[in-house]
Every structure is written in C-alpha cells, then in structure tokens.
C-alpha cells in the first residue's frame, strides 16, 4: 500500500481509527474524514507516528453533498489521485420500530446510505480515469441477516449491500473493485457506547476489522474480494 492514496470516512475513532493506523503502517498517504476536527487531529498524529507517508484531515459531514465534493477536491489537489476509499462512517439507533423516531430513521439513512453513496460517487470519476481503484464499505453482519430491535439500522445496511453489489457490476470491468466488510459485534464507541467496557471483552476489536480491510485492499490487481463477514466466537451468525 506504499504511496497509495487512501480516504477513510469515520476515521476519528473506533474502527475507522484502526483502519487508518493499519494503512499508516503500510506507508500509505491518508485522508482522514469525520465531523470532529480535534479527534481527526489526534488520529493524524498517531498515523504519522505509525509510519504514514502523509496525512490530510478534512472535516466533513458525509451526508452533505457540498462537503463531500470539497473533500474530494481537496484530496485531488493535494495528492492528484485516489486509490482507495473506505466507507466506514456510520451510526445506529437500536430500538423497536414503535419507538424509532423519524429523525433517527432519517439520520441513519442520511449517513449510512446517502453519505456512502456521495463519497462513492465522488471518488468514482478519478478512479475511472485512472482505470483503477477500490471502494471498501464497512457494512454489517446485519446487512445480510436481520435482528429484532434494530430494523432501521438493518435496513440501512441491507441498502449498503444492494448498492455495493450493483456498483461492483457497473465498475468491475473498468478496473474498480468494490468490497463489503460485514463485522459482527465490535468494541468501539458505536451507538453511544464506551470502547473498552467490560461486557465487550469477548467482542471483536477494531483492529480485527482493520486487518480484514487491509487484506482485501492489498490483493493483487486481478483478485477481487466481494464480501468478508467477520464476527466474534461468542456471537452466532
Ligand atoms: P464509532 O466508534 O461510533 O465511530 C463512528 C465514526 O463515524 C466516527 O469517526 C464518527 O466521527 C464518524 N461519523 C459519524 N457520522 C458521520 C458523518 N455524518 N460524517 C462523517 N463522519 C461521521 O463506531 P464504529 O463501530 O467504529 O463504526 C464504524 C462502522 O462500523 C459503522 O459504519 C458501523 O455501522 C459499522 N459497524 C459497527 C459495528 C460495531 O459493533 N461497532 C458492527 C458492525 C458494523 P464524527 O462523530 O466526528 O463525525
């Protein structure tokens, strides 16, 4: 991955931070994207220490079309190309359908689905011009199966799977890869939780997801990984 330009959304903590550090160790050039500039700056420091060739932070709300366009422009003017996009930013509200508000429903779709579409569309033009590129989506195991108490979140991740599987068919022949990584329960700050909380000791660690992303991203040019489902031993699929 040395010298590859890698854009990571939701890079300010949790799984996105670990993905950033994994690519940093491979000496990639990173573009870290999230809404909180202080958190991004902290991860930028860690990534530089870990060996990244260069790190750009772009404070962006991925659900806003203009902000995503600026993020892509700033990336291209700094690095001239985009090799990898990791669509990782996401939110979840885990409630019964009866209790889910319209605002919660819309926020999940705005970030998990529309934001992922906007970032993917933003990087496609440079990738298609290059004749190469890789879009990796952090979906979820509930993008292929359902659970009770998270219907809205499940619906967004099923949408991610549908979008990504269709996009793969659109761009594969033009040299652009699309991969979905579907994690099970992972110890992060997700859904307003505490990373490192005792009850999550047996869950996946963010580094486990980062390793799967790096595996898919570093395959030879002729090898395409469609999906990786990964879950902790304590969770049945
Ligand atoms: P997390 O610790 O809460 O991190 C979420 C990241 O997304 C943060 O960096 C956050 O930064 C960013 N983000 C949220 N809204 C954004 C927006 N509108 N624009 C830009 N960035 C935004 O959660 P995580 O577990 O690492 O989640 C990462 C991905 O993994 C999500 O897509 C989630 O659905 C998926 N996933 C998680 C689990 C799990 O058990 N943790 C399981 C399966 C899948 P800011 O708030 O600063 O914007």
UniProtKB/TrEMBL annotation:
Which GO MF term does the entry hold, naming one? oxidoreductase activity
This enzyme's EC code(s): 1.-.-.-
The record's SMART domains line, in alphabetical order, gives: PKS_KR
Q: What keywords tag this UniProt record?
A: Oxidoreductase
Q: Where is the Ketoreductase domain?
A: 4-188
- List the Pfam families: adh_short
Q: Which family does it belong to?
A: Belongs to the short-chain dehydrogenases/reductases (SDR) family.
User: This protein is called what?
Assistant: SDR family oxidoreductase
The species is Effusibacillus consociatus
């Amino acid at each position: 991955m040395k010298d590859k330009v890698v854009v990571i959304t939701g890079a300010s903590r949790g799984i996105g931070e670990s993905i950033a550090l994994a690519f940093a160790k491979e000496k990639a050039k990173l573009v870290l994207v999230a809404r909180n500039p202080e958190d991004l700056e902290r991860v930028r420091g860690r990534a530089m220490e870990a060996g990244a060739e260069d790190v750009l932070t772009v404070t962006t709300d991925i659900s806003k079309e203009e902000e995503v366009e600026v993020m892509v422009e700033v990336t291209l003017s700094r690095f001239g190309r985009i090799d990898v996009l990791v669509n990782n930013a996401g939110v979840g509200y885990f409630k019964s359908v009866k209790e889910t508000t319209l605002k919660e429903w819309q926020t999940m779709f705005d970030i998990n689905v529309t934001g992922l579409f906007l970032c993917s569309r933003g990087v496609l033009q440079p990738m298609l011009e290059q004749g190469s590129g890789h879009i990796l989506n952090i979906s979820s195991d509930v993008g292929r199966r359902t659970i009770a108490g998270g219907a809205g979140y499940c619906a967004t991740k099923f949408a991610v799977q549908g979008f990504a599987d269709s996009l793969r068919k659109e761009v594969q022949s033009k040299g652009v890869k699309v991969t979905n990584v579907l994690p099970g329960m992972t110890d992060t700050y997700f859904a307003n939780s505490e990373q490192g909380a005792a009850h999550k000791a047996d869950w996946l660690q963010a580094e486990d997801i980062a390793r799967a992303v790096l595996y898919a991203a570093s395959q030879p040019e002729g090898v395409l990984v469609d999906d990786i489902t990964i879950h902790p031993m304590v969770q049945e699929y």
